[in-house]
Amino acid sequence: MFRNITPVVKNILIITVAVYAVTAFLMPQLNGLLALYYVNSNRFIPTQFLTYMFMHADGWHLFSNMFGLFIFGPLLEQFLGPKKILTLWMVCGVGSGLLYSGYTAFQMNKLDNKISEFYEEPSPELFNRFVIENRHHFKPAVFDFIDAYSRNPEDPALIQRAKENMTATRDNQANVPMVGASGALFGVLIAFAMLFPNTQLFLLFPPMPVKAKYLVLFYGLYTIYNVVNNNPLDNVAHFAHLSGLIVGAGLVYYWKKSRKDFY
To answer: Where does this protein chiefly localize (predicted)?
Structure first.
């Protein structure tokens, strides 16, 4: 099985596994430099748009992404050539990071506006609404504080404490990093589906055959559902997956349009 692995796919696998081994076991302090942070975070540096895609949260995260590349990458490399498969992987990975950062900036801007609204006119109602919308960041004891604040809405100490809680929540969200090659992998998946749409793939769970175009369609719809649903307890960057699909589809469409360069 490993004899059929192509050079670029093999090198991506080796580099990504090596980076995971170094950051997970030898130099964990590199995580803060290589993972992708919110662009206005004091931890952000531009090179993270590239380095984050070689980082992974744990062994299962690494395995799932590299297994997908191992399955779909070699045939694409044989068809597209080494230069284009590398371009596909890198452009989808970096493009996914850029689009995800834009999405994060939009979400952070909404959060900043709500905090500014409270600063201008502090009230227990606004703070309570903020806590409910961001409840996964608060401990249950915050509701005791809300009760006390509701009884004393003009107390400067309680107002200050509410502001500190809101600012801390904002800072926590700003410093949640994104890691993983999922955006790049989803670019590979959409490329495979566009170039080999009727290729039969055999799933393990459930054990059944399915055409590539239907498998990627399912992943796409599932990803859109999770982006819209926006479960705060879900730590998967679904928008990054969707971004990888979009960038990959755009790149393959461009290549197919330029047929004399494509074939």
So the answer is: membrane
- Where does the chain hold its CATH 1.20.1540.10 domain(s)? 2-105+179-262
Measured distance CA(242)–CA(219) in Å, rounded: 9
Q: Which pLDDT belongs to residue 179?
A: 93
Instruction: Decide if 6 contacts 73 (C-beta within 8 A).
Output: yes
Return the CA Rg of the chain. Answer: 22
Hey, what are 181's tokens? 């090659």
Give pLDDT tens digits for 17-53.
999 999 999 999 998 899 999 999 989 999 999 999 9
* pTM to 2 decimal places: 0.87
Q: The domain 2-105+179-262 is classified under which CATH number: 3.10.20.30, 1.10.8.60, 1.20.1540.10, 3.40.1790.10? A: 1.20.1540.10
Task: Name the DSSP letter for residue 43.
Answer: T
Helices (H), the chain: 7-21, 31-34, 48-51, 59-80, 82-120, 124-133, 142-151, 156-174, 182-195, 212-229, 238-257, 259-262
